[in-house]
């Protein structure tokens, strides 16, 4: 299974996801794409198999992924303080991959109904989904 993890800012969310996935589902191949070099470097340190940075890396990665994981902003043009370009958002949205989107309320994009859910709980939900997918 090829997993693409996309993150922005400092890559902290992506780093947390990569560490957890590598421990729980070690046979997965993880490609980390940061919208900036800091995010990419932090996700690579967490154990990503491959890493790249920027718009074209997102576009290419979305073509090859079975599953895409990232904050919900990766499907919203100009989100994450402008780090997600319209081309990136379109690539994620048009990908044939399944998308596991983490409802982070930032940058004027508010997802209602997620109060009280911690990032750790959301990562646990991702792991549960991935474990069920690898049993097929």
Overview of this protein structure:
The protein is an alpha/beta fold and 136 residues long. The protein has one domain: NAD(P)-binding Rossmann-like Domain (Rossmann fold, 3-Layer(aba) Sandwich). The chain is 45% helix and 19% strand. The chain has a 5-stranded parallel beta sheet with strand order 3-2-1-4-5, sandwiched between helices. Strand 2 (29-34), helix 2 and strand 3 form a beta-alpha-beta unit. The longest helix is centred in the C-terminal third of the chain and has 16 residues, at 119-134.
Task: Summarize this structure as a short list of keywords or feature phrases.
single chain; 136 residues; alpha/beta; Rossmann fold; five-stranded parallel β-sheet; 5 strands
Low-confidence stretches: none
- Rg estimate, integer Å: 13 Å
Q: At CATH's second level, what is the architecture?
A: 3-Layer(aba) Sandwich
Oligomer: single chain
The profile of the biggest β sheet is: 5 strands, parallel
List the helices and strands and how they pair.
Elements: E1 2-7, H1 12-24, E2 29-34, H2 37-45, E3 50-53, H3 55-64, E4 67-71, H4 79-82, H5 86-94, E5 98-102, H6 119-134
Parallel strand pairs: 1-2, 1-4, 2-3, 4-5
Helix pairs in contact: 1-2, 1-6, 3-5
Structure, briefly:
Helix content is 45%, strand content 19%.
């Amino acid at each position: 299974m090829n997993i693409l993890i996309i993150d922005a800012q400092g890559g902290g969310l992506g780093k947390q996801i990569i560490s957890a996935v590598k421990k729980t589902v070690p046979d997965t191949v993880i490609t980390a794409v940061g919208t900036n070099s800091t995010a990419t470097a932090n996700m690579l340190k967490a154990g990503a198999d491959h890493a790249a940075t920027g718009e074209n890396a997102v576009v290419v990665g979305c073509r090859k992924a079975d599953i895409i994981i990232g904050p919900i902003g990766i499907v919203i043009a100009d989100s994450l303080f402008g780090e997600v370009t319209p081309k990136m958002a379109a690539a994620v949205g048009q990908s044939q991959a399944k998308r596991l989107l983490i409802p982070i309320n930032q940058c004027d994009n508010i997802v209602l109904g997620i109060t009280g859910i911690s990032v750790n709980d959301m990562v646990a939900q991702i792991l549960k989904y991935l474990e069920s997918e690898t049993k097929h």
